[in-house]
Protein backbone atom coordinates (compact mmCIF):
# COMPACT_ATOMS: atom_id res chain seq x y z
CA UNK A 1 0.00 0.00 0.00
CA UNK A 2 1.46 3.29 -1.16
CA UNK A 3 0.85 5.22 2.10
CA UNK A 4 1.50 2.40 4.52
CA UNK A 5 1.83 3.72 8.11
CA UNK A 6 1.93 7.38 7.10
CA UNK A 7 -0.01 9.63 9.48
CA UNK A 8 -2.36 12.09 7.78
CA UNK A 9 -4.04 15.09 9.41
CA UNK A 10 -7.26 16.16 7.64
CA UNK A 11 -8.45 19.56 8.83
CA UNK A 12 -12.14 19.22 7.87
CA UNK A 13 -12.88 15.51 7.82
CA UNK A 14 -16.63 16.01 7.91
CA UNK A 15 -16.79 17.82 4.57
CA UNK A 16 -17.49 16.01 1.30
CA UNK A 17 -13.84 16.25 0.31
CA UNK A 18 -12.75 15.14 3.78
CA UNK A 19 -14.88 12.00 3.68
CA UNK A 20 -13.62 10.97 0.24
CA UNK A 21 -10.01 11.60 1.21
CA UNK A 22 -10.31 9.76 4.51
CA UNK A 23 -11.68 6.60 2.91
CA UNK A 24 -9.18 6.54 0.05
CA UNK A 25 -6.13 7.20 2.23
CA UNK A 26 -7.26 4.55 4.71
CA UNK A 27 -7.45 2.06 1.85
CA UNK A 28 -3.91 3.07 0.90
CA UNK A 29 -2.62 2.19 4.36
CA UNK A 30 -2.49 5.59 6.05
CA UNK A 31 -3.40 6.27 9.67
CA UNK A 32 -5.69 9.25 10.14
CA UNK A 33 -6.21 12.22 12.39
CA UNK A 34 -9.72 13.41 11.58
CA UNK A 35 -10.46 16.93 12.73
CA UNK A 36 -14.13 17.79 12.87
CA UNK A 37 -16.67 20.18 14.28
CA UNK A 38 -18.33 19.20 17.54
CA UNK A 39 -21.77 18.83 15.91
CA UNK A 40 -20.61 16.60 13.05
CA UNK A 41 -22.69 13.47 13.61
CA UNK A 42 -21.19 11.59 10.66
CA UNK A 43 -17.62 11.41 11.96
CA UNK A 44 -18.03 8.25 14.13
CA UNK A 45 -19.33 6.31 11.11
CA UNK A 46 -16.51 7.67 8.93
CA UNK A 47 -13.92 6.66 11.51
CA UNK A 48 -15.42 3.18 11.74
CA UNK A 49 -15.35 2.80 7.95
CA UNK A 50 -11.68 3.82 7.86
CA UNK A 51 -10.78 1.42 10.65
CA UNK A 52 -12.36 -1.38 8.62
CA UNK A 53 -9.48 -0.93 6.14
CA UNK A 54 -6.98 -1.42 8.97
CA UNK A 55 -6.33 2.26 9.55
CA UNK A 56 -5.73 3.62 13.03
CA UNK A 57 -7.97 6.66 13.48
CA UNK A 58 -7.96 9.44 16.04
CA UNK A 59 -10.85 11.93 16.00
CA UNK A 60 -10.04 15.40 17.32
CA UNK A 61 -11.84 18.73 17.56
CA UNK A 62 -9.13 21.36 17.40
CA UNK A 63 -9.95 25.02 16.83
CA UNK A 64 -7.56 25.50 13.93
CA UNK A 65 -7.77 29.28 14.18
CA UNK A 66 -5.51 29.06 17.24
CA UNK A 67 -2.06 27.51 17.20
CA UNK A 68 -2.27 26.56 20.89
CA UNK A 69 -5.28 24.34 20.16
CA UNK A 70 -3.38 22.61 17.35
CA UNK A 71 -0.34 22.12 19.57
CA UNK A 72 -2.51 20.39 22.16
CA UNK A 73 -3.88 18.01 19.55
CA UNK A 74 -0.40 17.25 18.22
CA UNK A 75 0.75 16.31 21.71
CA UNK A 76 -2.26 14.02 22.11
CA UNK A 77 -1.81 12.40 18.71
CA UNK A 78 1.94 11.86 19.03
CA UNK A 79 1.34 9.44 21.89
CA UNK A 80 -1.13 7.44 19.81
CA UNK A 81 0.05 7.58 16.20
CA UNK A 82 3.34 9.44 16.20
CA UNK A 83 4.19 12.52 14.15
CA UNK A 84 2.16 13.88 11.23
CA UNK A 85 3.56 12.94 7.81
CA UNK A 86 0.92 14.61 5.62
CA UNK A 87 -1.16 17.71 6.33
CA UNK A 88 -4.27 18.11 4.17
CA UNK A 89 -5.82 21.53 4.67
CA UNK A 90 -9.29 21.41 3.13
CA UNK A 91 -11.16 24.09 5.09
CA UNK A 92 -13.39 25.77 2.54
CA UNK A 93 -15.83 28.16 4.18
CA UNK A 94 -17.96 29.90 1.57
CA UNK A 95 -20.39 32.79 1.77
CA UNK A 96 -22.12 34.40 -1.18
CA UNK A 97 -21.41 38.13 -1.15
CA UNK A 98 -20.09 40.82 -3.46
CA UNK A 99 -17.42 43.40 -2.80
CA UNK A 100 -20.17 46.03 -2.92
CA UNK A 101 -22.49 44.56 -0.30
CA UNK A 102 -20.36 42.08 1.67
CA UNK A 103 -20.19 42.68 5.40
CA UNK A 104 -16.96 43.17 7.32
CA UNK A 105 -17.92 40.39 9.73
CA UNK A 106 -18.62 37.97 6.90
CA UNK A 107 -15.35 38.82 5.18
CA UNK A 108 -13.32 38.24 8.34
CA UNK A 109 -15.24 35.07 9.19
CA UNK A 110 -14.31 33.44 5.87
CA UNK A 111 -10.69 34.55 6.13
CA UNK A 112 -10.41 33.12 9.64
CA UNK A 113 -11.95 29.78 8.67
CA UNK A 114 -9.88 29.38 5.51
CA UNK A 115 -6.70 31.45 5.45
CA UNK A 116 -6.01 31.76 9.17
CA UNK A 117 -6.48 28.04 9.79
CA UNK A 118 -4.08 27.33 6.92
CA UNK A 119 -1.49 29.66 8.48
CA UNK A 120 -1.83 28.18 11.98
CA UNK A 121 -1.66 24.61 10.72
CA UNK A 122 1.38 25.43 8.61
CA UNK A 123 3.21 26.92 11.56
CA UNK A 124 2.34 24.15 14.00
CA UNK A 125 2.37 21.01 11.84
CA UNK A 126 4.72 22.24 9.13
CA UNK A 127 7.15 23.39 11.79
CA UNK A 128 7.10 19.93 13.34
CA UNK A 129 7.79 18.42 9.91
CA UNK A 130 10.72 20.80 9.38
CA UNK A 131 12.26 19.70 12.68
CA UNK A 132 12.08 16.08 11.49
CA UNK A 133 13.30 16.87 7.97
CA UNK A 134 10.37 15.40 6.04
CA UNK A 135 6.67 15.79 5.33
CA UNK A 136 4.01 16.85 2.84
CA UNK A 137 1.67 19.84 3.09
CA UNK A 138 -1.22 20.08 0.64
CA UNK A 139 -3.78 22.86 0.52
CA UNK A 140 -7.03 21.99 -1.24
CA UNK A 141 -8.04 25.26 -2.81
CA UNK A 142 -9.79 26.63 -5.86
CA UNK A 143 -9.35 28.17 -9.28
CA UNK A 144 -10.82 31.26 -7.59
CA UNK A 145 -7.48 31.90 -5.97
CA UNK A 146 -6.78 33.57 -9.33
CA UNK A 147 -10.11 33.78 -11.19
CA UNK A 148 -12.80 36.09 -9.73
CA UNK A 149 -16.19 34.47 -9.32
CA UNK A 150 -18.36 37.57 -9.11
CA UNK A 151 -20.35 35.82 -6.40
CA UNK A 152 -18.21 35.01 -3.34
CA UNK A 153 -15.43 37.56 -3.09
CA UNK A 154 -14.32 36.69 0.45
CA UNK A 155 -13.86 33.05 -0.56
CA UNK A 156 -11.73 34.11 -3.53
CA UNK A 157 -9.65 36.42 -1.36
CA UNK A 158 -9.08 33.66 1.19
CA UNK A 159 -7.98 31.23 -1.51
CA UNK A 160 -5.60 33.77 -3.02
CA UNK A 161 -4.07 34.19 0.42
CA UNK A 162 -3.66 30.43 0.89
CA UNK A 163 -2.08 30.04 -2.53
CA UNK A 164 0.56 32.62 -1.67
CA UNK A 165 0.97 31.06 1.78
CA UNK A 166 1.73 27.77 0.02
CA UNK A 167 4.48 29.40 -2.02
CA UNK A 168 5.97 31.20 0.97
CA UNK A 169 5.82 27.99 3.02
CA UNK A 170 7.43 25.99 0.22
CA UNK A 171 10.32 28.43 0.17
CA UNK A 172 10.99 27.90 3.87
CA UNK A 173 9.88 24.33 4.51
CA UNK A 174 11.38 23.06 1.28
CA UNK A 175 14.84 23.71 2.73
CA UNK A 176 13.99 21.20 5.44
CA UNK A 177 12.75 18.36 3.23
CA UNK A 178 9.05 19.28 3.31
CA UNK A 179 6.97 19.47 0.12
CA UNK A 180 4.28 22.15 -0.01
CA UNK A 181 1.77 22.50 -2.85
CA UNK A 182 -1.58 24.11 -3.60
CA UNK A 183 -4.36 22.39 -5.58
CA UNK A 184 -6.74 24.57 -7.56
CA UNK A 185 -10.00 22.64 -7.73
CA UNK A 186 -12.34 23.42 -10.59
CA UNK A 187 -16.13 22.96 -10.88
CA UNK A 188 -17.91 20.25 -8.94
CA UNK A 189 -21.59 19.32 -9.17
CA UNK A 190 -22.80 22.27 -7.09
CA UNK A 191 -20.65 24.93 -8.77
CA UNK A 192 -23.53 26.93 -10.25
CA UNK A 193 -25.23 27.14 -6.87
CA UNK A 194 -22.04 28.29 -5.18
CA UNK A 195 -20.70 30.65 -7.82
CA UNK A 196 -23.55 31.56 -10.18
CA UNK A 197 -23.33 35.31 -10.65
CA UNK A 198 -25.36 38.20 -12.04
CA UNK A 199 -22.20 39.93 -13.29
CA UNK A 200 -20.22 36.96 -14.62
CA UNK A 201 -21.23 34.25 -17.11
CA UNK A 202 -18.44 31.93 -16.01
CA UNK A 203 -20.82 29.33 -14.54
CA UNK A 204 -23.59 29.63 -17.12
CA UNK A 205 -23.81 26.14 -18.68
CA UNK A 206 -20.49 25.47 -16.99
CA UNK A 207 -20.44 21.75 -17.75
CA UNK A 208 -20.24 22.59 -21.46
CA UNK A 209 -17.10 24.60 -20.77
CA UNK A 210 -15.13 21.57 -19.63
CA UNK A 211 -13.45 20.05 -22.72
CA UNK A 212 -14.15 16.48 -21.62
CA UNK A 213 -17.72 17.31 -20.61
CA UNK A 214 -17.43 15.91 -17.07
CA UNK A 215 -16.98 17.77 -13.79
CA UNK A 216 -14.35 16.63 -11.32
CA UNK A 217 -15.10 14.39 -8.36
CA UNK A 218 -13.66 14.12 -4.89
CA UNK A 219 -12.76 10.51 -5.57
CA UNK A 220 -10.55 11.67 -8.44
CA UNK A 221 -9.03 14.26 -6.15
CA UNK A 222 -8.33 11.54 -3.58
CA UNK A 223 -6.35 9.57 -6.16
CA UNK A 224 -4.16 12.59 -6.87
CA UNK A 225 -3.68 13.28 -3.16
CA UNK A 226 -2.68 9.67 -2.62
CA UNK A 227 0.10 9.97 -5.20
CA UNK A 228 1.34 13.33 -3.93
CA UNK A 229 1.44 11.94 -0.40
CA UNK A 230 3.98 9.29 -1.38
CA UNK A 231 6.70 11.90 -1.87
CA UNK A 232 7.68 10.32 -5.18
CA UNK A 233 7.60 13.66 -7.02
CA UNK A 234 10.27 15.35 -4.94
CA UNK A 235 10.76 18.20 -7.42
CA UNK A 236 7.13 19.28 -7.01
CA UNK A 237 7.35 22.04 -4.42
CA UNK A 238 5.62 25.42 -4.32
CA UNK A 239 3.43 24.41 -7.26
CA UNK A 240 -0.16 25.44 -7.95
CA UNK A 241 -1.78 22.48 -9.68
CA UNK A 242 -4.97 23.25 -11.58
CA UNK A 243 -7.47 20.39 -11.41
CA UNK A 244 -10.33 21.79 -13.46
CA UNK A 245 -10.50 19.50 -16.49
CA UNK A 246 -9.54 22.45 -18.70
CA UNK A 247 -12.49 24.59 -17.55
CA UNK A 248 -10.55 27.87 -17.59
CA UNK A 249 -9.38 27.17 -21.14
CA UNK A 250 -12.97 27.64 -22.34
CA UNK A 251 -13.52 29.97 -25.26
CA UNK A 252 -16.93 29.58 -26.91
CA UNK A 253 -19.86 27.46 -25.68
CA UNK A 254 -20.96 26.18 -29.08
CA UNK A 255 -17.48 24.87 -29.83
CA UNK A 256 -17.22 22.81 -26.65
CA UNK A 257 -18.16 19.19 -25.99
CA UNK A 258 -21.54 18.44 -24.49
CA UNK A 259 -21.53 17.15 -20.90
CA UNK A 260 -21.22 13.40 -20.46
CA UNK A 261 -24.69 11.88 -20.84
CA UNK A 262 -26.01 14.71 -23.03
CA UNK A 263 -24.16 13.84 -26.24
CA UNK A 264 -27.35 12.83 -28.06
CA UNK A 265 -29.43 15.72 -26.77
CA UNK A 266 -30.46 18.45 -29.19
CA UNK A 267 -30.62 21.07 -26.45
UniProtKB/TrEMBL annotation:
Keywords: Oxidoreductase. It comes from the Bacteria. The keyword Disulfide bond does not apply. Signal peptide: none annotated. The keyword Kinase does not apply. Pfam families: adh_short_C2 (PF13561). GO terms for molecular function: oxidoreductase activity. PANTHER family: OXIDOREDUCTASE, SHORT-CHAIN DEHYDROGENASE/REDUCTASE FAMILY (AFU_ORTHOLOGUE AFUA_5G02870), SHORT-CHAIN DEHYDROGENASE_REDUCTASE FAMILY PROTEIN. Belongs to the short-chain dehydrogenases/reductases (SDR) family. This is NAD(P)-dependent dehydrogenase (Short-subunit alcohol dehydrogenase family). It comes from Paenibacillus phyllosphaerae.
